[in-house]
Design goal:
Layout lengths: L1 H37 L2 H23 L1
Amino acid sequence: MKQVMNTSKKRDIHQQRLAVLRLEMDYELAVLFEAMEADNKDIQMKSKEKLMKIREELIRLKAL
């Protein structure tokens, strides 16, 4: 029974992290869009770097 509970907790934590990453991705896409409209290259590069990190973590989590 203890093993079932641990598995359930891990799955819940995994799902919560995925949800947080999706929200972070949506926010960062909005930041990138605004930077593109303002033609701010510095913010665009920072936003793209953050999006790449989020993408990598999403890939890693979905592969587990």
